[in-house]
Design a protein that fits this description.
By secondary structure, the chain is an alpha/beta fold. It has one domain: Rossmann fold. 35% of the residues lie in helices and 21% in strands. The strands form two sheets. The protein has a six-stranded parallel β-sheet, with helices on both faces. It has a two-stranded antiparallel sheet with strand order 6-7. Strand 4, helix 4 and strand 5 form a beta-alpha-beta unit. The two termini are 15 Å apart.
Length: 194
């Protein structure tokens, strides 16, 4: 990865307690280290004074854990925003729809966007596709996002690992570059030393 300069921004997508509650209720996920990796990325961006955008999903579905009045709407502790960091609330899959995310990125001259969050094949994927389509240098961090097992159209359980891998395969090259936490952190270190 080329070292991101001051134009880089971290976008954390839907890192909310609803997904912790789903896991506690027995839903199986992949990438058990993902939230810790999100926190590492967040710390690195903060330490270098780089832009951070926190995205929250406010569901309009009656029974959703992500409704704003429910505990699931809250940020997962180690990725909670600090004063001065942007928090944008969305109601659909893409963080670019119904928010001013694109305008804030363009105003800040953030050409490179580092994306991480939950879930890989829903809001993370949709936001990543739009970032690429809008002309941003989108970098999706493989080990800093996750998803859950899902019953497919055939009625068979599709594993979180397979869904995650296929999502990244679909995005790689056309919409985004797939990174790891380590490649992003190494690029940030290189940029800071330059």
């Amino acid at each position: 990865m080329a070292a991101p300069g001051k134009e880089a921004a971290l976008i954390l997508i839907d890192v909310q307690k609803a997904f912790v509650e789903m896991e506690a209720a027995g839903h199986r996920r992949n990438n058990p280290q993902a939230v810790a990796n999100m926190a590492r990325l967040l710390d690195a961006f903060r330490n270098q004074g780089l832009a951070v955008f926190h995205i929250r999903h406010a569901s309009t579905e009656p029974g959703s854990l992500l409704r704003p009045e429910r505990s699931g709407f809250e940020a997962i502790g180690e990725t909670r925003e600090r004063p001065g960091e942007a928090v944008l609330v969305k109601h659909v899959n893409s963080a670019f729809i119904g928010t001013d995310l694109e305008q804030q990125l363009r105003d800040g001259r953030h050409e490179t966007v580092i994306l991480a969050g939950i879930t890989t094949n829903h809001c993370v994927e949709t936001t990543t596709r739009m970032a690429g389509n809008l002309g941003f240098d989108a970098r999706l961090v493989d080990d800093a996002c996750y998803t859950f097992d899902r019953v497919g159209r055939s009625g068979e359980v599709e594993s979180a690992e397979a869904i995650h891998a296929m999502t990244l395969s679909n995005l790689d090259g056309e919409f985004a570059t797939i990174e790891t936490t380590e490649t992003v952190l190494a690029a940030l270190r290189h940029s800071a030393a330059a």
